[in-house]
Amino acid sequence: MSTSISLLSAFQLDLIEAGCDEAGRGCLAGPVFAAAVIFPADYCNPVLNDSKKLSEKKRMELRPIIEQEALAYAVASVSAAEIDRINIHRASYLAMHRALDQLTIKAEYLIIDGNKFIPYAELPYNCIVKGDGKYLSIAAASILAKTYRDEYMESIAHDFPDYDWLSNKGYPTIKHRQAVLNLGLTPHHRKTFKVTEPQLKMVF
């Protein structure tokens, strides 16, 4: 079982720290993406912030900077079909695990955005609510997960123009919900997410 240690203890132990975050948890369609980022211990970038607080242009400007300046980073996803099989909560953590698997430097300590996590490889970790606004590696992970997921949704949007994925990226906007109600589900939709008016209900 992984243990949770304090951030101060992790710093004192000089552990290699990876920040993790996901994107697309609340979407009706498409995969959930996650990223893991390891920065140098003394890394500083005053522009980095929670991806939701940045414009799309700023996120795209920051992505190559993150990829160049990180000691290691990785992005992974879990498909809509997998989400339907294991539920979105487990899928979000599985995406993080897959990203951690791909890191070229082995993490020794994890900081996770949110309040829950499924332990990974017996590594110590801490969950930090709104961590993407507090820690640079989590902020960077949120930007990578968000930009890679947005690009994926844009790549499939032209095949299903009525669902407005170029604009909503799979999130449950009114236009997206209405398209599902009128036209049905595509192969990219999460079938365990039931669309109703005006509420969205997750069924597991």
TrEMBL record:
Gene3D superfamilies: Ribonuclease H-like superfamily/Ribonuclease H. SUPFAM superfamilies: Ribonuclease H-like (SSF53098). Its cofactor is Mg(2+); Mn(2+). Keywords: Cytoplasm, Endonuclease, Hydrolase, Manganese, Metal-binding, Nuclease. It is an enzyme of class 3 (hydrolase). The keyword Nuclease applies. It holds the Pfam family RNase_HII. Signal peptide: none annotated. Manganese or magnesium. Binds 1 divalent metal ion per monomer in the absence of substrate. May bind a second metal ion after substrate binding. Its EC number is 3.1.26.4. Belongs to the RNase HII family. This is Ribonuclease HII. The gene is rnhB.
